[in-house]
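> agent: user asked for a holo structure of the chain below bound to 2-acetamido-2-deoxy-beta-D-glucopyranose. Plan: (1) validate sequence alphabet, (2) canonicalize SMILES, (3) run complex prediction with ligand conditioning, (4) return tokens. Step 1... ok. Step 2... ok. Step 3 dispatched.
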Amino acid sequence: MKLSLTLLGLAMACLAGVKADDSTSILTADERIMLAVASTNQTGGPSPYDWPDAAPATPEVATNTSDTTVDVVSSRSEGESSKRSYKSAYNLGNIITKRHDYVTLTDGTDPRYQNAALQAPSYLTYKVISNTTSYATAKKACLAYCSSVSKCVAANMYNEIGNPLLDHTFSEKSNRKCALYGDVPTLSQMTNKGGQQLYGPNSPANCIENSAVFYLGAAAAPTTPSGYTFTFGPLDAATSASLAVGYMGYDFITQYDPNQCAKLCDARKADPVGGKCKFFNIWRGVVSGKPTTYTCSYFYQATDASTATNTGDAVNKVTVTFSRGYTRNST
Ligand SMILES: *[C@@H]1O[C@H](CO)[C@@H](O)[C@H](O)[C@H]1NC(C)=O
Ligand SMILES: *[C@@H]1O[C@H](CO)[C@@H](O)[C@H](O)[C@H]1NC(C)=O
Ligand SMILES: *[C@@H]1O[C@H](CO)[C@@H](O)[C@H](O)[C@H]1NC(C)=O
């Protein structure tokens, strides 16, 4: 059974007095996870108030999971507590080896895209680069920055006009930003046009010019987490919670990182009957063609590609990409 978000809203309105998780319980776990992907939003980019050169974002359990529509509260609160315990032990396991093959998605001159910065998942950090050099020199500096940051696979270079921090505060005295991402975005994610009056209530709003996007054409496959065996993938279908035995729930995470899922699987509370997490499935959710979030789902029994059958949700336009399975070696 497929319920669109709109239909679900109507269903909830009809069931006055019934809690949201009661009305979604008519859905299977496979349907609920796709509905949750459709109703979450893990996209972002540098805000006009962010300072440059911050340490790149590390993968975390995503918090904006829109739990008014979908019951994801329990997995989230568990993730939050485990997040604190492993954060310091985070291991940058996923090193990209081929660092020079950048492809231009758009070069900053296309009128359809040049006036909007990226709003995409897996935002890492940004820096300010000189606006007195040529486009070619600036592009080289921006790509060198991406190459120097672990996990960077895409960069968005643009000028932000009307931001007092860039104009007066930062030492670079340049309005050209280079923002880094850990996933390859689509042109449809160039949606941030500025529009904030950063100089005060009656000032012109900030705006974006010359927005260009580059990405690594050949990113290496992720490193298999230690203590696990790579079992399948990449596929366009997630492990089905009804076909595979021992479904234990899921988390949304902010970057595509099997190592992160492995830590969450290890830290997950054992099932009273089935025992500890023995297998996880990681995949990227795409909503209406836009990469949106990353899911780890957990099972207390190992499985393989034969149960990876959940291809998404046609009604809510959710598709599954880069689905990989990993099995824990010991119990
Ligand atoms: C997602 O969240 C970002 C940051 O809060 C916001 O700017 C953007 O408009 C949101 N996108 C959607 C599709 O709601
Ligand atoms: C969460 O996602 C919603 C829906 O896209 C968005 O409107 C909201 O700004 C987001 N909240 C945060 C804290 O990012
Ligand atoms: C470069 O950026 C600075 C700071 O925003 C701005 O004052 C200056 O006009 C810009 N120069 C060019 C050539 O765009």
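> agent: step 4 complete. Summary for user: DSSP finds seven helices and 15 strands in the chain. The chain has two domains: 1-42+75-86+223-331, 99-216.
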